[in-house]
Amino acid sequence: MTLPALVLLPLLVVLVGLVLSESDGRGDGRAAEHVPCSEALRFGGAALPDGARPVGACTLQGFQDTHYGAAFRMPRTGVQDWLAHTYPDAPAPRADTCGGGDGDLCLDLGPARGLPGGVDAHAVQVRVEYGADGTALVRFSAFTT
Length: 145
Known about the structure:
Elements lengths: L1 H21 L10 E3 L1 H7 L9 E2 L3 E5 L3 E10 L3 H8 L18 E5 L13 E8 L4 E9 L2
């Protein structure tokens, strides 16, 4: 009876090791991969605004759900116009919708909250932090649920 268990134990250890080594802490067992920022933004119905520069790598993570992430800096004065042009049917972004987290301006979108039709994402989150240097750090997430 113990012999079959001893044979299967190393296989179980290897399987658990593989899952843990590929996980980046988000719980789906797949590590994030770098993708072009245009791909990450397009998934959520957006494009990199004029004058923006990416901060770090844009990422894709997926197993059952898909999650794209992007961060970029842009002129602070252009944030509201970029959001209004990108998501014309969205509610106005506000600071009090950031849920107590980081952000001077936040926007959460879904099919019933201003996300345009034909977009692959089911939801989009935009978090904006204003810098003292006249720029804004925009954190963009687009994902399926």
